[in-house]
Design a protein that fits this description.
7 helices; single chain; two-stranded antiparallel ribbon; 166 residues; Globin-like; mainly alpha
Length: 166
Protein backbone atom coordinates (compact mmCIF):
# COMPACT_ATOMS: atom_id res chain seq x y z
CA UNK A 1 0.00 0.00 0.00
CA UNK A 2 1.40 3.37 -0.99
CA UNK A 3 1.11 5.88 1.84
CA UNK A 4 2.43 8.81 -0.20
CA UNK A 5 -0.12 10.90 -2.05
CA UNK A 6 0.26 10.89 -5.80
CA UNK A 7 2.74 13.49 -6.91
CA UNK A 8 1.04 16.40 -8.59
CA UNK A 9 2.26 16.98 -12.11
CA UNK A 10 3.58 20.51 -12.17
CA UNK A 11 4.17 21.97 -15.59
CA UNK A 12 7.41 23.90 -15.96
CA UNK A 13 7.46 26.73 -18.52
CA UNK A 14 10.77 28.49 -19.17
CA UNK A 15 12.16 27.01 -15.95
CA UNK A 16 9.27 28.30 -13.82
CA UNK A 17 6.38 26.21 -12.47
CA UNK A 18 3.06 27.14 -14.05
CA UNK A 19 0.90 28.87 -11.43
CA UNK A 20 -1.78 26.55 -10.06
CA UNK A 21 -4.41 29.26 -10.49
CA UNK A 22 -4.03 29.18 -14.27
CA UNK A 23 -6.62 26.85 -15.74
CA UNK A 24 -8.99 26.61 -18.70
CA UNK A 25 -11.64 28.71 -16.96
CA UNK A 26 -9.17 31.52 -16.38
CA UNK A 27 -8.08 31.37 -20.03
CA UNK A 28 -11.73 31.58 -21.07
CA UNK A 29 -12.40 34.50 -18.71
CA UNK A 30 -9.39 36.41 -20.09
CA UNK A 31 -10.27 35.77 -23.73
CA UNK A 32 -13.95 36.66 -23.37
CA UNK A 33 -13.24 39.70 -21.21
CA UNK A 34 -10.54 40.95 -23.55
CA UNK A 35 -12.56 40.59 -26.74
CA UNK A 36 -15.53 42.27 -25.08
CA UNK A 37 -13.24 45.28 -24.56
CA UNK A 38 -11.89 45.01 -28.12
CA UNK A 39 -15.36 45.03 -29.68
CA UNK A 40 -16.25 48.31 -27.99
CA UNK A 41 -12.86 50.01 -28.38
CA UNK A 42 -12.83 53.06 -30.66
CA UNK A 43 -9.53 52.13 -32.35
CA UNK A 44 -9.62 48.33 -32.48
CA UNK A 45 -13.37 47.71 -32.51
CA UNK A 46 -13.88 48.78 -36.13
CA UNK A 47 -11.02 46.56 -37.29
CA UNK A 48 -12.20 43.44 -35.46
CA UNK A 49 -15.89 44.05 -36.06
CA UNK A 50 -15.16 44.62 -39.74
CA UNK A 51 -13.22 41.37 -40.02
CA UNK A 52 -15.45 39.18 -37.83
CA UNK A 53 -19.18 39.02 -38.55
CA UNK A 54 -21.46 39.00 -35.48
CA UNK A 55 -22.41 35.35 -36.02
CA UNK A 56 -18.69 34.39 -36.26
CA UNK A 57 -17.70 35.81 -32.87
CA UNK A 58 -18.47 32.61 -30.90
CA UNK A 59 -16.22 30.62 -33.25
CA UNK A 60 -13.48 33.25 -33.01
CA UNK A 61 -13.65 33.25 -29.20
CA UNK A 62 -13.37 29.46 -29.13
CA UNK A 63 -10.36 29.66 -31.46
CA UNK A 64 -8.71 32.28 -29.22
CA UNK A 65 -9.40 30.19 -26.09
CA UNK A 66 -7.73 27.28 -27.86
CA UNK A 67 -4.79 29.51 -28.86
CA UNK A 68 -4.16 30.77 -25.32
CA UNK A 69 -4.71 27.31 -23.85
CA UNK A 70 -2.07 25.93 -26.21
CA UNK A 71 0.24 28.87 -25.55
CA UNK A 72 0.10 28.81 -21.75
CA UNK A 73 -1.19 25.39 -20.74
CA UNK A 74 0.59 23.50 -23.53
CA UNK A 75 -2.59 21.83 -24.73
CA UNK A 76 -2.77 20.80 -28.36
CA UNK A 77 -6.17 22.32 -29.10
CA UNK A 78 -4.95 25.10 -31.41
CA UNK A 79 -3.71 24.22 -34.85
CA UNK A 80 -4.22 27.47 -36.73
CA UNK A 81 -1.93 30.14 -38.09
CA UNK A 82 -2.58 33.42 -36.25
CA UNK A 83 -0.34 35.66 -38.35
CA UNK A 84 -1.94 35.64 -41.85
CA UNK A 85 -5.18 37.43 -40.86
CA UNK A 86 -3.10 40.22 -39.31
CA UNK A 87 -1.00 40.61 -42.45
CA UNK A 88 -4.18 41.34 -44.39
CA UNK A 89 -5.13 44.37 -42.24
CA UNK A 90 -4.20 47.56 -44.09
CA UNK A 91 -2.51 50.22 -41.98
CA UNK A 92 -1.93 47.94 -39.00
CA UNK A 93 0.72 49.72 -36.96
CA UNK A 94 2.36 50.23 -33.63
CA UNK A 95 -0.58 52.23 -32.22
CA UNK A 96 -2.86 49.23 -32.80
CA UNK A 97 -0.49 46.86 -31.05
CA UNK A 98 -0.07 49.30 -28.15
CA UNK A 99 -3.84 49.54 -27.71
CA UNK A 100 -4.16 45.74 -27.99
CA UNK A 101 -1.53 45.30 -25.29
CA UNK A 102 -3.05 48.01 -23.07
CA UNK A 103 -6.50 46.41 -23.23
CA UNK A 104 -5.00 42.96 -22.72
CA UNK A 105 -3.04 44.13 -19.69
CA UNK A 106 -6.15 45.70 -18.16
CA UNK A 107 -8.06 42.44 -18.69
CA UNK A 108 -5.43 40.13 -17.22
CA UNK A 109 -4.85 42.42 -14.24
CA UNK A 110 -8.58 42.44 -13.56
CA UNK A 111 -9.04 38.70 -14.13
CA UNK A 112 -5.88 36.97 -12.91
CA UNK A 113 -3.65 36.83 -9.87
CA UNK A 114 -0.42 38.80 -10.45
CA UNK A 115 1.79 35.83 -11.36
CA UNK A 116 -0.71 34.63 -13.99
CA UNK A 117 -1.25 38.15 -15.34
CA UNK A 118 2.53 38.44 -15.73
CA UNK A 119 2.68 35.16 -17.63
CA UNK A 120 -0.09 36.27 -20.01
CA UNK A 121 1.65 39.61 -20.54
CA UNK A 122 5.05 38.07 -21.24
CA UNK A 123 3.50 36.00 -24.02
CA UNK A 124 1.40 38.88 -25.35
CA UNK A 125 4.43 41.19 -25.54
CA UNK A 126 6.41 38.56 -27.47
CA UNK A 127 3.49 37.91 -29.83
CA UNK A 128 3.03 41.62 -30.49
CA UNK A 129 6.72 42.08 -31.30
CA UNK A 130 6.77 39.05 -33.58
CA UNK A 131 3.65 40.24 -35.41
CA UNK A 132 5.00 43.79 -35.78
CA UNK A 133 8.18 42.42 -37.35
CA UNK A 134 6.20 40.14 -39.67
CA UNK A 135 3.86 42.94 -40.76
CA UNK A 136 6.79 45.23 -41.60
CA UNK A 137 8.65 42.46 -43.42
CA UNK A 138 5.51 41.53 -45.36
CA UNK A 139 5.17 45.16 -46.49
CA UNK A 140 8.80 45.26 -47.59
CA UNK A 141 9.73 47.67 -44.80
CA UNK A 142 12.90 47.52 -42.77
CA UNK A 143 12.55 45.76 -39.45
CA UNK A 144 15.80 47.13 -38.02
CA UNK A 145 14.17 50.01 -36.16
CA UNK A 146 11.30 48.02 -34.67
CA UNK A 147 11.88 47.81 -30.95
CA UNK A 148 9.79 45.59 -28.68
CA UNK A 149 6.92 47.35 -26.93
CA UNK A 150 7.65 47.22 -23.21
CA UNK A 151 4.86 46.86 -20.70
CA UNK A 152 6.20 49.90 -18.85
CA UNK A 153 5.67 52.00 -21.99
CA UNK A 154 1.98 51.19 -22.30
CA UNK A 155 -0.76 53.66 -21.50
CA UNK A 156 -2.95 53.57 -18.40
CA UNK A 157 -4.51 50.24 -17.55
CA UNK A 158 -7.65 51.53 -15.87
CA UNK A 159 -10.81 50.75 -17.83
CA UNK A 160 -12.09 54.33 -17.90
CA UNK A 161 -8.77 55.69 -19.16
CA UNK A 162 -8.45 53.00 -21.82
CA UNK A 163 -12.01 53.53 -23.03
CA UNK A 164 -11.29 57.22 -23.62
CA UNK A 165 -8.61 56.19 -26.11
CA UNK A 166 -5.47 57.05 -24.18
Amino acid sequence: MNEHPAAKNTMIINGVPLPEALDEQMVRDVVHGFYSEIQSDNLLGPIFNGAIKPEEWPRHLTKMCNFWSATLLRTSRYNGRPLPPHLAIPGLGEEHFRRWLTLFRATVKKTCPPEVAALFMQRALRIAHSFRLAVAFNRGESTLGIEPILETSLGPSLRGEVARGS
